Amino acid sequence: MSPRAGLTPDRLTAAAADLADEIGFENVTLAALAKHFGVKDASLYSHVRSLQDLRTRVALLAGGEMIDRIAVAVAGRAGKDALAAFAGAYRAYALAHPGRYAATQIRIDQALIRDTPAFHRTAEITYGMLRAYGLTEPDLTDAVRLLRATFHGYCALESGGGFGAPRDVQKSWDRAVDALHVALTNWPQEENTHD
């Protein structure tokens, strides 16, 4: 297949995302992608600038897919119901698409994502859900960081087999979401300290 035979940046990105789920995001290379399409590595450079460009594209694709699933899950819900739906959709995506999910965790230049629809949709859905708890800045940002750290940590441990106790992993997840709801409902007030 030649580069003129249907290769596009979007097609390469989708194939790289599929490959990431199969072999791990860290193992996706231009050589592996070229082999998948039966072309020379060099022929990919007319569609993507570099491996970093390809990985950024996969991250943006995966982030968009993930927030689309979360949006469907939280639609029409508020409070604890929205939090549980958000958390469940997040976890389901992370476990079903480990390579894509890993891509969403890479550091991307904020200037590249600031104007993407997925970035705005993620902020709108996440912050909207948290505003139902009566949070405003800077507490919104702190709460987003708490949720992301909790969800990511849990998913990373679960996918890596890090939970060895006999307690059902789903029950622990449900209790973690309950605990987050309590924390968000009773968010501590920041002390004003003026020296």
Description of the molecule:
By secondary structure, the chain is mainly α. Helix content is 66%, strand content 0%. It is built from nine helices and no strands. The protein has helices at residues 9-23, 30-37, 51-74, 79-96, 98-104, 110-113, 117-131, 139-159, 169-185. α1 (9-23) crosses α3 (51-74), α4 crosses α8 and α7 packs across α8. The longest helix has 24 residues, at 51-74. The radius of gyration is 19 Å and the shape is globular. 26% of the residues are buried.
Helix content: 55-70%
| Secondary-structure element series | HHHHHHHHH
Tell me the number of helical segments per DSSP (H or I, 4 or more residues long).
9
> What is the overall shape?
globular
Content-based structural category: mainly alpha
Give the radius of gyration: 19 Å
Count of distinct strands:
0
> What is the average per-residue confidence, as pLDDT, rounded to a whole number?
92
First and last CA, distance = 69 Å
Regions with pLDDT < 50 over 5+ consecutive residues? Answer: none
Portion of residues in beta strands equals under 5%
Major sheet summary line: none
